Amino acid sequence: MLKLHEHDAVKFGSFTLKSGIESPIYFDLRVIVSFPDLMREVSAQLWQATQRAGISFDVMCGVPYTALPIATCISVKENVPMLIRRKEAKDYGTKKMIEGNFAKGDTCLIVEDVVTSGTSVLETVQSLTNVGMVVKDAVVLLDREQGGRQNLEVKGINLHSVCGISELLDILCGAGRIDSETAAKVRQFLASANEVKVPQSKPCEDGGQPCKKQKKMLTYQQRAALCTHPVAKRLFTIMHEKRSNLAFSVDVTSATQLLQFADDIGPYICLLKTHVDILEDFSQDFVTRLQATAKKHNFLIFEDRKFADIGQTVLKQYISGLYRICDWAHIVNAHIVPGPGVIHGLSKVGVPKERGCLLIGQMSSQGSLATGEYTTAAVKMAEENSNFVMGFICQGSLTDDPRFIHMAPGVQLGGSGDQLGQQYNSPAQMVTEKRVDVIIVGRGILNAEDPVATAKLYQHAGFEAYENLSNNLCFCTI
Description:
Layout: H1 2-6, E1 10-16, E2 22-27, H2 36-53, E3 59-62, H3 67-78, E4 82-85, E5 98-99, E6 107-115, H4 119-130, E7 134-143, H5 148-154, E8 158-164, H6 165-174, H7 180-192, H8 220-226, H9 230-242, E9 246-249, H10 255-265, E10 271-274, H11 284-297, E11 300-307, H12 311-319, E12 331-334, H13 341-350, E13 356-360, H14 372-384, E14 389-393, E15 405-408, E16 416-417, E17 423-424, H15 427-433, E18 438-441, H16 443-446, H17 451-471
Parallel strand pairs: 3-4, 3-6, 6-7, 7-8, 9-10, 9-18, 10-11, 11-12, 12-13, 13-14, 14-15, 15-18
Antiparallel strand pairs: 1-2, 4-5, 16-17
Helix pairs in contact: 2-3, 6-7, 8-9, 10-11, 12-13, 15-17
Active site: 304 (for ompdecase activity), 306 (for ompdecase activity), 309 (for ompdecase activity)
Family: In the N-terminal section; belongs to the purine/pyrimidine phosphoribosyltransferase family.
Pfam families: OMPdecase (PF00215), Pribosyltran (PF00156)
C-alpha cells in the first residue's frame, strides 16, 4: 500500500468522482502498468486473497480496463484461464462481448482494482451471465467502503478485498505518509457520504422472473444537480422545466426564415441547432436577434460547426472570421480525428466563456467510419476533458457517466431514411432503446405541412419516451 501512494496511485486533495461526488481521496491504479514490480506485487496480493477465501472457479475476468493487466498477470503466473469482457461489442467480425474459451456453466472469478458502488463489477457479471457463465465471487485490491460490498451481496456476489480504505489510512498514517488531519477528513467523508445503492431487481409486469438487465435511471433534474459543467447543468435544467428533450435542426439559407422558425418552434425545444455557414445573409444583427429569441423561449444555441483541424486553426475558426461563433453559440461540436489538440484549442476560449463542446462519437449516415475504436477514443477524450466536453453526438448511449449528454441526429416519427444515406429512428427508439438524452429533428419539422404542430408531436413523443423509461424500475431486453 505504501508503494501505491509512492507512485501516486493513491492521492489526497479534492477530486470529482465519476458520480459527480467530491472526494478527498482518489485512486488511480492505471499508473501501476508503468511499474512492473508493483504490478507483480499487486497481482500476488490479489491471488493470495483468493486463496485465503478458498474460492473455487474455472476462469477469471478482469473488469475493463484497469483490472485487465492485473488479471493477465495472475493468469500467466498461476496458469489460470482468462476471459476478456469488452465494454462494447465490435460492429464487425464475431461481435462478441466476451472473448476467450469457455463453456456454459463455467464459474468465473471477477478481478477489479477499486470498488465503490460495485456497478462496474455488476456490469461485468451481467455480460458473463448473458453467455451462460456463473459468477459467485469478485476479488478487489481496494474497497472504498461506500456500499459496494453490500450491493454485490444483494446480487449474490461475495467481495474479497486485499485492503479497505480504513486500513489504508491506518497504514499511511503509521508510516508518516499523511497526517492525522488528512486521515480524519477522509474518514468524515466516508461517514457522511451516502452509500451508492444498486436498485433491487423487480419482477416484470407480466409477473415473471426479475429482469436480467437493469440500470438505474436518473432524471434530468438529478443529472443537473450532478453536473459541474455549466452548459450541461443549464441544458438538463431546461429539459426538466420545459418538459422537452427536442433539439430543432433549422437548416435554412435565409436568416429571416431561421429567426421565424426559432420564434415559432422555440417554446417546444431545449436546443436550436444551426449551420450558419449556409446562410446567405448572415449578420451581427441576426446574431443579436437569435440570442434574444433564445432568451425569450429559454433554449440553448448549438452551432453544428464540426471542428476538425489542429488546435491553433480551430481556435481561430472559433473566435475569428465572419461568424465569431464563440460569442453566441452555447455549444459547438468537434471530430476527434485530429486528436485531443482540437479540444485543447477550442477550450482555450470555450472554458472561460462557459461554453460546451460535443464530441462526434457516431454519425447517422450510412457507412460512417465513426465506430469501434474511434468511438471508444471519443469517450476517453471526453472523460479527460470534461471541463469543456459536455457530451456526444451519437446513435446510442456511449457511457453511463450521468454528467455527459447524448444527442442523436437522424430522428423521425416514422423512421426510414433518404436517398443520400441518412438513416432515421423514431423518438421512442432513440430514447427508450438507445438511451439518448436529446433527439435532433430537422427535416421532419422543416418539411411538415404544419411545423409548429409537428414540433409539438416530437416534443411529446420524446419526453413521453423519457418519462416511460424513468418511471419504469424494470427494463427488459430481448
